[in-house]
Sequence to fold (965 residues):
Amino acid sequence: MTAPWTEEQVTALAPDAGSLSAARKLAGRWHGIGYRDTALWGLCKGSGAKPYQTIVDLTGPAYKCSCPSRKFPCKHALSLLFAWSAGMVDEAAQVADFAAEWIASRAARATAPASETATRTANPATAEQRRVRVTAGLEELDVWLGDQVRTGLAQSDRSFGAFEAIAARMVDAQAPGIASALRQLPIAVAASTDWPALVLGEYARLHLLVAAHRRLDDMTPALAASVRAHIGYPAPAESVRTEPAVRDRWMVLGMRTSEEDRLYTRRTWLHGRESRRWAMLVEHSFGSPSFSGEVPAPGMMADAQLHYYPGAAPLRALWGERHGAPEPFTTLPVADGTIAAAIDAHAHAVGADPWLRSWPVLLADATPVLTKKGWYIAESDGSALPLARVEEPWRLLGVSGGHSVTLAAEWTAGGLVPISAFVAGEVVDVSNNWPAVGRILNSVAASATDAADLASVALLGTARRAADPARLDAPVAAAATRLRTDPALLLLESAALRDAFARGGVVTDTATISAPAEDDPRPELPRAAAAKLARMLQDRSAFLPEWFAAAQPHGYRAPDGLCGLLLEQARTNSELREPLLRLAGTRGRWLATLHPAWRKLVRHGSETPAAQVWQFGKPPERREWLTELRGRDATAAREALSATWPKESGPLKAELLAVLSAGISPADEPLLETALDDRRADVRRTAAGLLTLLPDSAFTDRMRRRATQWITTAWDCADPNEPRAQLYVEIPESLEATDRRDGISDRTAEFSYRWGGAPDATAGRLRQLVAATPLAHWTTALGTPGEPSTPQQAAKAAIDDRFRQPLFDGWVDAALAQRNPVWARALFDAGVPSDLAMLRRRELFALLPLADRTEHLVHLDGSWLSEIEALLPAMGHPWPQSLAAHLILLLFERARAAQQRPGAHGATPSAHRSLLAAASAHLPLSAADAVDAVILRCTEPSWEQAFNRLAHDLNHRSIMLQELQ
Fold:
């Protein structure tokens, strides 16, 4: 029985992100699913009456589906594999009929004798015709190359059009490999200040290839095959499979996909467990990255035969006969994983095939090191090789934490390019997906760094200055003296010799390994949960807050390979910064100290004395320290802030003062009164806002007296059963200094009240006064003698139209600041006459008890969907079950309306996108059954799709939370 694959293994099979996303949405549509031995099958409900029949042969894997998709695997096969991975597929007694026939036919083809397989035989006449055409094109190219360096690179046409013209000629000559190299050269010219050396190096490589092609018949078959491959001669798969097979247990150590002109190329690196040989599988797909699923995911091992493409340094290969299903490996045997052995292997490969761009290496004792000279991979004895200057390897550094790892990489003349690291029995992807042009640039640049004289000659042109081979390294000079006397060709061949000598004679550098990261004792996040988190971060999922809230009680730390991603997200996402940094933990703090953009995120560890954090820490650290102390010891926090208050400055001063809101008490009043005299307006406003939370403070007493003096009350008793208070506002035109000190000012721009076509400063002062006055004052002032008014009665008080809005705004400010649910209820019911009415109604609504909020919403019908949607953010997470059921019913009513009146305004799912998105994130998971029931009853296609997406999101959240257990 084949063990279920992990979610990561299934994800690696996806041809593109769209297929992966579509596959996850199909959860819940399957029936008739099962597996037996290496067969997996199921029926998936589609848009038609007949379900899609999906089959997976796990030995390939190979796929068959009755859907019209041309992608392999299609979304149905991926969804079926995800269900199997999640343990949702039971083993069956026998293979289903619709799957058995296809599985049997595959088995028959696999066991068919080789003689039964038709092999195409190349037509000798056609092959000779192609060679003649290639020869003519290469001779023309060689003349062009000589002319370029003869007249000088500075004088030559280096535009895209010029290179495209000669590249097109190579395409006509059936030399696509050379055409591809030429098309990448304009990028080298535009992107590098060292472009003369880059261009000369590539011209020398091409000239050497032309010279080799002239002598194809004199070469060994292996070297001739390499020359043909670099030029672009075809190598049919049938002929490659006639090469001797190499059977081994091939471990997949890396997989990369690149794209150029809509041609996607996937390279997979394999390493033989017994033979210790490298192999590379290369696949192409035009238009989209739709590759076959027969290649196992990294971390898997396949017992199979490989057929190498013929060549002097064979590396590329094709699958041959398989022996059993792929299985994971947890150990990685290395014959000689030293830097010295890697250099030696690379030198032999370059000696055999001087046109190689790169060669894979396996280093058993590799530590990434950042030095003043750049990035290196160092061994414990200090021997080091530089990393290619493509992208800085922060992911690799996070995985290693300054400790040694087993590293799979490509060695180029520009340095090492990491592929993957093998840590704790797992293959971890650490490389960057860099295009082929990067390999050319690095290779040529490194070969030209010690040949400035050759580059300067090429820049001026050999017609003006001839190259002096004697100035090259002795071995190169000795060989160059035997070359032809044409100055242009002498320059190209000297550069080719210099390049081969530099690439084959690499010497190690030295680097000092710094102190590694400390261990984090917390349990590591489960693998499935870590993979899910990485996807959600990259997709900016709306489910992230729920995920972090669910993960926090477990006290997890992130896998080391995720630390770089978490830090980058923390840098740009302030809302989730704290949980991201907490998850990154010790490894994340260590990594952040080395990255300039992440360094400001570093928090002092528990080993740093508290006094140092408070005195010398960064603003976020000081605020965090004071907040933690305030929650633990309010008095100590107040005393610490009081001691440093005279020296505090900047925006942080108001932020530190705001920390006192937690556990505020009369003991904080002296410091807050002092803050009222501060020069910064934000500090004064913060102090005034905190003093309003102390009902017995001198500040609130002063506000009561002002309210009594400036706002008087009279009674309208026309209706003896319901007398009504009448308010009169008499705020003085000229304010005293004490009024301004307490926050009463002429900040008309803050509120923008107008009367008679001009700014109304009095209205602004009224709002400031009312907002800072205890709400209890109004129930007394607006009540009758001996019987205080209720907030509902106060809200009905009559007032001049000029002051009605600022009065209500002030009451709303006070109710929100003082967290008074009774006043919030009265003001919510009365309505808020303000331009920000809906936002402020939501804030008031949030102060009501949850039962009252739920009752209010469930009594609103479908005509109030806009009101419901506006108030839902005040309902917390998740929404109550009764509210969830009510919303699903209202949305289903819209679906029925859309069915009855197609195209009706406001009846389509697009008209309720934000409500559906909120439902996906906040519906309780228990609402899944209600959504499934609606799907079965819904017949309108667009709404059925919307409900299916809702069901998928609920299932996604359910799995997301289960993975954290």
Summary: Confidence is low (pLDDT under 50) at residues 114-119, 433-450. The longest strand covers residues 245-260.
